[in-house]
Design brief:
single chain; alpha+beta; six-stranded mixed beta sheet; 27% helix; binds guanosine-5'-triphosphate; binds magnesium ion
Length: 553
Amino acid sequence: MPLTVGTAGHIDHGKTTLVEALTGKNTDRLPQEQERGISIDLGYAPLALPDGTQLSVVDVPGHERFVRTMVAGASGIDLFLLVIDANEGARPQTHEHLAILRLLGIDRGVIALTKIDAVDDETLELARAEAEELLPGGVPIVAVSARTGAGLDELRTALAAVAVERDRSQAPTRLYVDRVFTLHGIGTVATGTLWSGSIGEGDELRAEPGGRAVRVRSVQVHDRPVARADAGQRVALALPGVERHELRRGDALVAPGAYATSYRLDVALEALAEIPSRVHVHHGTANILARAVRVGDHYAQLRLAEPIVAARCDRVILRADTTVGGGLVIDPSPPRHASAERMALVESGEIAATVHEPVREESLAHLGELTGIERAGGWVFSSAWLDELRAELDTRLARADPLDPGISPPPEAWAAAVVPLLGLERRGAKLYRPGVIAELGGRADAAARLEAELGLEPVKVDDAALARFLEEQGRLVRVGDGFAVSAAAYEQARSALVAELEAEGRIALARFRDLLGVGRKTAQLLLERFDADGLTRRIGDERVLRRRGTLQA
Ligand SMILES: Nc1nc2c(ncn2[C@@H]2O[C@H](COP(=O)(O)OP(=O)(O)OP(=O)(O)O)[C@@H](O)[C@H]2O)c(=O)[nH]1
Ligand SMILES: [Mg+2]
């Protein structure tokens, strides 16, 4: 598998010259770089080693003002080539670049003590001793001169020895753009190191943030066309239809739908200094201003000014004026509420344990496979939560009015998926215990007292549920707003009304009142009820029988 090696080291220590001596390519191509004799932007060159290993070299600038460019260059590399001027020894950016490499988790590489043509043996030995202290643990140290060529073969051998294949994730395609330019006859070209997946001719990708669909017309690896490039390779993609200004360093090209963009990252912190609340977060080739909210001793939530595409276990570098620390991404799209407890669970991979009440399963998909969790209709939740819900609904059912022993279902979006798991019965809009029937319960006496009072004169009934229940059982008829008459009285009034209407065709309120021998108010309440029942229809001050088939008229 292809590997990328990135240079590191203080300004003017000889990185670019060494890369040219190794690869034959001068990567300082900008006019200002040639004028000023320093590197400003990232440079790229292929390096073929004698044993057949193919490396891609990313040359970074050493100037302290361009450390952010160095981070962008270092973010996709597998190996480092730390260059130290044998005469000067380690200087501030030697240390800062080294810290960045360590925070990015790049622990394999070689130290080149360079410009040895310009130092005596004693100075060289001092430089070697210092380098050993810088990176204890057996990182190879090779003395070279780009000018005379001394040590270059040894350096190639040392690089080949550290260039062992890395376990690349099998994750979907992801590339962070480091350069965008226009080529005559080809159009917009974007380059970057392919972090994962592969990219081939004709592939559809998304440019994030923004989600613009792009189609890859052709792929090159170090100026050579390939049908498909693999993770770890430096690739150049021709993107027809994309304007140059539509893409920039920091953007991600990803497999459609595979990664979410996010304004927040939960990270496990590694602080080198006090972390200020406003920091630059370097991730991929992007550099974004953020607010760092410390959570407990080990964690922080980074709230970004612009959204990014990240994945679990990515590394970020935090910089203010200088590099203040780094972070390991534990959740690339966390909930807004930052909790140390949740972060600890996510960090240790206990994703299911972070879930209690229902959350959408897709909101956790980016954290890996979920096991040991309840799921229904795209929601995941803990079995403890389901038990709590069951107990809560049980309590509400127990407290429900025996006259209508149902409860309204929970209003939350998960209800439709989760409630069916509870074995309740749905009747209309309410939930009931299976087979439960309405009953009077403690109101049997009240019902008896009410029934004893009922007749043709409407009686005020304060207990509306009781009135509805007794009416359903045919034991009274409700009239007006909160009144009732006995079922027998209702029938009597109805027969009288129908007989009159069949004989006369129409009836006025006064006539009906006289027929029943009741007051005007009672007659009116009854007539309104007959209207509501669809028996009669009002025309002016009179009523007629509603003809069959015109009930809805
Ligand atoms: N004598 C001698 N001079 C060297 C050697 N390598 C580089 N130089 C000189 O050192 C100076 C800086 O070299 P660069 O390769 O530009 O240094 P750099 O590390 O790339 O610098 P930045 O990219 O700006 O950080 C140049 O003047 C080189 O000619 C060497 O092996 N011997
Ligand atoms: Mg340089």
